[in-house]
Amino acid sequence: MDASILNYKVNDNVGDFLSKEKKLYIAGKWVDPDSGKSFDVEDPATGKKIASCSAGNSKDIDLAVKAARKAFDSGVWTDMSNSEKGKIIWKIGDLIDKHNEELAQLESLDNGKPVAVAGAADVPLSSDIFRYMAGWATKIEGNTIPYSCLYTPGAKYHSYTLREPVGVCGQIIPWNFPLLMAAWKIAPALTAGCTIVLKPAEQTPLSALRLTEIIHDAGILPEGVLNVVTGFGEDAGAPLAEHPMVDKVAFTGSTEVGKIITKAASGNLKKVSLELGGKSPTIIFPDADIDAAIAGAASAIFFNHGQCCCAGSRLFAHEKVFDKVSEGIAKIAENIKVGPGMEASTEMGPLVSDEQYQKVAGYIESGKTEGGEVIAGGNYDNSSGGHFVHPTVFAKTNADMTLVKEEIFGPVVCAQPFSDESLEKIANEANNTNFGLAASVWTKDISVAHKMAAKIRAGTVWVNCHNIFDASLPFGGYKESGWGREMGHEVLKNYTEVKAVTVNL
Ligand code: ADP
User: Fold this and answer.
1) What pLDDT digit, counting tens, does each position of 194-204 carry?
2) Using a 6 Å cutoff on CB, does residue 40 contact ligand 1?
3) Which is the catalytic residue, given 309, 310, 414, 486?
4) In sequence order, what are the residues at sequence separation of 6 or more whose Cβ sits closer than 8 angstroms to the Cβ of residue 484?
């Protein structure tokens, strides 16, 4: 790799990986794409090409699905002892940690996020889900079921359930946490005994490919258990979602594409799990530790440049503390150092792509036009070729404004005050969205905290914190934020079928 393109000193493996040809991974081998074409991968901090990847299409997907089908039907993975499976899954976690530096650099170069954040959050969270799931490999159990069987008096039956792998899984992932989203998908599917075709996002395919290379080089997975096809959504994602030999599709991304995938999956009624968009409220009561709430609310929206499905993008603060809170967040926003993710001093990198930059800039302009008051940021700059948007705080927003209603997926927060209304009214306002992914409530009153947690219609409620994730905690959405849960033992429901067996004794 030409150092003048990267401008940064990188781990040797990163240089080698970027400069070499990146193929598709099908049936345990690196293969050329049917199209013979590749697509460019850029550094969002410069807009310059840093790598190219194979442009997979429906024929490649077909080959990959058939490889996954063959591996599943052969039992090479499913029938392996659960203890052996668990050891392999654990080993993948260890390999991720061993390659922390290079995976963090790839993530930063590809997605734009600060390399220190990738090294401290994305990579260790990715290894941890493998370790957490490794433990479950030996603990997926059914139940014995006592029965009544009213219409066969005197008969004796023994009934029990088996929890079996759902089969071949198509997994389509987004660009905001490329490695972590791959880990959230691969780890539980392997644990349940499934085989996989993974389609990374076209903006950020590098870390998932490098992880696959690391797993391949370790020689720990039987061929066909994990297949990876890079390419665009319509060319590679769509045929995966509709393929008749795929038993289940797991998707993380926009609500719009989630709906398309659901339709595509209906051909063979494959199982579908979706982790989609959000417009999460951060609700600050006047009794809260206000300094902690200000710092927490700022991090809720600005972490990962606001490119989090659970970003705290709607801020509600009680009118008694509204000015202090909004000004406090504005001050933090103004002091955030925006720059290339690979620079050590950078606190917020560029947005992932020009498309995302234009979208977020459009929302900022719509907020200004609709009467929102910009009290921090509001500016964006791509003159260097990078997609930089400054952290932005809008005060004087209301529920009718476009930027309050729609998911922005950028570092833009919309603040609104509330008065001494009932908790019911505050919760109604917070729930006034088609989404239901997450929320945070900031108060010292334990009763208010629990009452609000019950009233919020979202898959996650944080109290006096935001963006707290753990492999053990289920994550997913109510309403248009999705179906099913990622992580925790809940995720295993996405990847298993339940069979009831009844034996006439
Ligand atoms: P975003 O809007 O955040 O860019 P998307 O929802 O468009 O995210 O993309 C998330 C993932 O879905 C990516 O891997 C993308 O390639 C894929 N994708 C996009 N369109 C389709 C589609 N029509 N069918 C299947 N996958 C798609």
Assistant:
1) 999 999 999 99
2) no
3) 309
4) 250, 273, 274, 275, 476, 490, 491, 493, 494
